[in-house]
Write a structure and sequence with these properties.
14% strand; two-stranded parallel sheet; alpha/beta; seven-stranded mixed beta sheet; 11 strands
Length: 334
Amino acid sequence: MKVEFAPINIPLKRRMQTVAVLQWIFSFLLLAEFCCGLFVILILGRFWFLAVLYLLWLYLDWETPSTGGRRSQWVRGWTVWKYFREYFPIHLIKTSDLNPSYNYLLGFHPHGVLVAGAFGNFCTGPSFKNLFPGLTPYLHIMPIWFSCPFFREYVMSAGMVSASKESVSYVLNNEGGGHASVIVIGGAEESLNAHPGSLTLNILKRKGFIKMALKHGAHLVPVFSFGENELFKQVANPKGSWLRNVQEKLQKKMGFALPLFHARGIFQYSFGLIPYRQPIHTVVGSPIHVKQNLNPTTEEIEQLHALYLQKLRQLFEEHKRNYGIPEHKSLVFE
């Protein structure tokens, strides 16, 4: 394989962008393991008492990820995130006003490999606040990450909270409105479909978010992130292949998927784990008004789910031409 090296005279700003993305990749893939390792070292070393104090703190603070988290505007405003967003670049597009007197459940699609658009738009920078004043976004992620020492504090500071039912209910139960739960509907399973050009969404069997919206009277908002699947290439894993079968079994046992992805490197463009410089345009659709129903029937859930799918497809069709999607390509729901 011929290696294509990066030019020497790349502007400093672009190098800073690459470093910012490298830091994000490390945080996403290795920081949790690093934090767990550090905790073990503390327990076995001379500073074991620090680990004991942290365990006490963990016990007292265990419910925080399910009760709104503990965001830090300082962390969310770090300059490194500005360079991170500029690397791709990441854009947030508004199609309709969202009245801050209500609570909203934003369904984010697609998952992609590492959910860069969701993190860049809802956990960093002022874009969401500027476009939707009065609304506070909460990005829900797998509860398992909040059991990891130290790492949990970091992800909470960025505005992430647990994806448990209790956590979503807490966010959507805000009486004064102004809260927006952001849920990546396809989940980890959908990351296995994250190939360039793929438009397959795992959503037909996912109706829990519909039930939550009905129970809390939270308005549903479809969100489609164009370019999310273009950031990485993934080893071919068609359904039925031995690799896909192994990935799906691991995903069911561990709760998270293991896509075998690759892209470019730091100093060359031929291989590595740094995402490609592909623009991400995250389009926030119009709200579907939902009337509170504490005990929705199966039929009512099905009806709202069908309406959500219709609005999601409509959002995609209306904007796909703007972001390089061929006219003949459409969403595939599984």
